[in-house]
Write a sequence for this structure.
């Protein structure tokens, strides 16, 4: 009989499993604790269980994991992991370290952000994105998303992942049920604060409207990337279905708690969406929305047909926004030397 993968079970199914094995209900809680907090990879490692119980369980169940195929380290400290799923497909995730501010180098303010994938490939076909170029292969299941965090956490001890962003391969809102279950496990089982998790979408309006119900506590980021429907539809086909007006309307309805804001990612493509007029339109579009803009100079890849704007252009674009009292950061891409930067995740299939 095939072993049951305990990691593939949600809370109710784990409880069901424990019941079927005629074990007391608290064993389900213990399993969750050992799998998601102690991060064990085998039933035999659950030392809180007696040896006979571990042996009994080992005959019935297992704890799946992802195989680390490759670990790339960038000169700037960014690390990329190529992880193999049990069916042989591969996904990438990226760990980006941010140093503590001067004077606080004791490690307590150091940030390690893990960028996770939600799908193998992506169906959205954004013209500037390598993941889009590879097309859609399949959705990741909840445990395959959570395992990216568990697996990298095992590798980087004693450092700790402090933040998680759904900005790897895939469109998370196209896989919302699985992503929502993964978020439940990250927050409830691994005790990750939802405030430290950000989900990024290309702008699937029904998903944005549904998100507060399925994943109430996470932050939202939107890849806006253009200020007119004409340009946005050209570079992001999703805009033909959900145009700027519908997208911004949904975002204005999005419930935000207290101090939180929506992050807008804006990939700057030289001569396409980086003019002074674009900056002015962006200010108008986002007026009244609690927003933060991340400007990402395009990461070039072969055959994309776009180029990055000059550093002066990027600064000028930012200045127009900040002069209008908007929060706008320039995101210097990290890990470009290992193809770990935004829009470069496809290496596994090249
Ligand atoms: N599919 C989701 C999550 C992926 S996030 C989304 O699109 O939001 C990936 C981010 O990288 C997006 O903001 C996207 O606009 C950006 N990106 C894609 N290709 C890029 C490139 N070549 N250079 C810079 N940023 C890129
Ligand atoms: Fe998919 Fe996001 Fe890339 Fe667009 S930018 S193709 S939605 S991963």
């Amino acid at each position: 009989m095939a072993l049951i993968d305990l990691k593939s079970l949600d809370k109710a199914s784990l409880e069901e499993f424990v019941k079927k094995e005629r074990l007391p209900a608290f064993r389900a809680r213990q399993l969750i604790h050992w799998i998601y907090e102690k991060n064990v990879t085998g039933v035999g490692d659950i030392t809180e269980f007696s040896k006979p119980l571990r042996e009994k369980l080992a005959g019935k169940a297992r704890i799946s994991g992802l195989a680390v195929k490759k670990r790339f380290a960038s000169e700037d400290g960014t690390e990329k992991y190529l992880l193999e799923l049990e069916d042989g497909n591969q996904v990438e995730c990226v760990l980006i370290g941010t140093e503590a501010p001067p004077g606080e180098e004791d490690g307590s303010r150091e940030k390690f952000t893990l960028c996770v994938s939600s799908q193998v490939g992506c169906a959205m076909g954004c013209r500037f994105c390598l993941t889009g170029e590879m097309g859609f292969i399949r959705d990741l299941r909840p445990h395959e998303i959570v395992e990216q965090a568990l697996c990298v956490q095992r590798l980087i001890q004693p450092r700790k992942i402090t933040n998680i962003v759904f900005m790897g391969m895939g469109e998370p809102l196209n896989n919302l049920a699985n992503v929502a279950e993964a978020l439940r496990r990250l927050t409830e089982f691994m005790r990750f604060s939802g405030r430290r998790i950000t989900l990024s979408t290309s702008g699937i309006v029904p998903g944005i409207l549904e998100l507060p119900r399925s994943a109430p506590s996470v932050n939202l980021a939107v890849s806006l990337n253009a200020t007119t429907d004409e340009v946005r539809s050209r570079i992001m086909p999703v805009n033909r279905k959900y145009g700027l007006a519908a997208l911004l309307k949904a975002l204005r309805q999005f419930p935000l708690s207290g101090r939180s804001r929506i992050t807008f990612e804006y990939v700057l493509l030289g001569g396409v969406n980086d003019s002074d007029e674009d900056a002015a339109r962006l200010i108008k579009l986002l007026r009244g929305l609690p927003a933060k803009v991340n400007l990402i100079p395009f990461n070039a890849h072969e055959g994309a047909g776009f180029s990055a704007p000059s550093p002066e252009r990027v600064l000028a674009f930012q200045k127009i926004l900040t002069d209008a009292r908007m929060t706008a950061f320039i995101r210097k891409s990290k890990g470009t030397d290992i193809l770990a930067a935004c829009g470069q995740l496809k290496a596994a299939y090249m």
User: Anything to note?
Assistant: The chain has a mean pLDDT of 92. The chain has two domains: 4-62, 67-338.
